[in-house]
Specification:
Helices cover 40% and strands 20% of the residues. It has four helices and three strands. The chain is elongated, with a radius of gyration of 24 Å.
Length: 84
């Protein structure tokens, strides 16, 4: 649930608001009672070891590069012939 805060609260209580963002809270900022912005926490990046990524895709089908490029060219409607 997003909490509504005023511009003044954002200015005066920025430390508390930043800590709440760290905990996953979201805010709608208002000026003169009108919503003007939104503060939402960024998703934290998570490190995945190379071995874990390889294991996750181990059972995936192989990609045929030539067919993949042909499909891409068809999808974006470009002539694959090199210029020059």
């Amino acid at each position: 649930m997003r909490r509504t805060i005023t511009q003044r609260e954002l200015r005066n209580e920025s430390g508390r608001i930043m800590r709440a963002l760290d905990r996953g809270k979201s805010f709608v900022v208002t000026r003169n009672g009108v919503p003007v912005g939104e503060l939402i926490p960024l998703r934290q990046r998570m490190f995945v070891a190379a071995e874990a990524a390889i294991a996750a895709f181990a059972g995936s089908p192989r990609v045929e590069i030539k067919r993949f490029r042909e499909d891409l060219d068809a999808a974006i409607d470009q002539d694959p012939t090199p210029r020059g």
